[in-house]
């Protein structure tokens, strides 16, 4: 298993990475604007769950196989682009007021969780990141490689959940105050759609390696 010295070195590195704005953080921000703080927290949980799937795949050795197949990475990437554009279209059509109502019930929160997981799973850069970053802290001599991957994955996923959730809660609180105005409510819909579209463009233009 992971020794304490390695873990103490890993935690600040993972925290620094979690604090760096990226696609997951921006998605939770957009989810908070679109559907409120609770939905953003659910989306953050979905993102963390997706991260753990990536970590498990890497720990099992399948991640390297996927990374060696450019066509598979491209297929995952374009699925992610299409999904984000679909979310942007939904934000424009539903508007933040209707979306916020959905974000307050169990079905709406489950949907936010699924969306967060799918956005994370459809980002091929996460696969490459896990393969490049986590193995630096793995020591095969200390036992199960998969177990070490999972321990490190839990650390980075928990940090991401807290930070991304906090960003989404902040956006949700701001959105709640502005949603009382119909004009601002419409603007929130445009804002969340813009965030999702920007993420889609970012994913579409990403370069491997």
Task: Describe the fold and architecture.
There is one protein chain. This protein has 209 residues and is mainly α. The protein has one domain. It contains nine helices and no strands.
Produce a short descriptive summary:
The protein is mostly helical. It has 9 helices and no strands.
Number of DSSP E strands: 0
Binned strand content: under 5%
Radius of gyration: 18 Å
* Biggest sheet statistics: none
Order of helices and strands: HHHHHHHHH
Low confidence ranges = none
What percent of residues adopt helix (DSSP H or I)? over 70%
> How many helices in DSSP terms?
9
Mean pLDDT: 81
Terminal Cα separation, in Å?
30 Å
Q: What structural class do the secondary elements suggest?
A: mainly alpha
Instruction: Tell me the quaternary state.
Output: single chain
Form type? globular
The overall number of domains is: 1
Jot down its keywords.
209 residues; globular; 0% strand; single chain; mainly alpha
Describe the secondary-structure layout.
Layout: H1 4-19, H2 23-35, H3 37-59, H4 62-67, H5 70-102, H6 106-121, H7 124-133, H8 145-178, H9 182-204
Helix pairs in contact: 1-8, 2-3, 2-6, 2-8, 2-9, 3-6, 3-7, 3-8, 5-6, 5-9
């Amino acid at each position: 298993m992971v020794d304490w010295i390695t873990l103490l070195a890993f935690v600040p590195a993972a925290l620094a990475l979690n604090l760096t704005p990226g696609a997951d953080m921006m998605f939770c921000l957009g989810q908070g604007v679109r559907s409120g703080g609770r939905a953003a927290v659910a989306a953050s949980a979905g993102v963390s769950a997706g991260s753990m799937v990536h970590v498990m795949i890497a720990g099992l050795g399948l991640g390297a196989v996927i990374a060696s197949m450019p066509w598979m990475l491209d297929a995952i990437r374009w699925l992610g682009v299409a999904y984000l554009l679909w979310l942007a279209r939904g934000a424009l059509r539903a508007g933040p007021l209707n979306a916020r109502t959905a974000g307050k019930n169990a079905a709406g929160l489950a949907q936010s969780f699924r969306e967060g997981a799918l956005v994370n799973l459809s980002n091929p850069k996460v696969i490459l990141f896990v393969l490049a970053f986590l193995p630096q802290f793995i020591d095969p001599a200390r036992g199960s490689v998969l177990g070490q991957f999972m321990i490190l994955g839990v650390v980075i996923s928990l940090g991401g959940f807290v930070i991304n959730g906090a960003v989404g809660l902040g956006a949700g609180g701001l959105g709640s105050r502005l949603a009382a105005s119909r004009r601002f409510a419409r603007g929130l819909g445009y804002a969340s759609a813009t965030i999702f579209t920007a993420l889609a463009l970012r994913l579409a233009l990403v370069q491997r390696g």
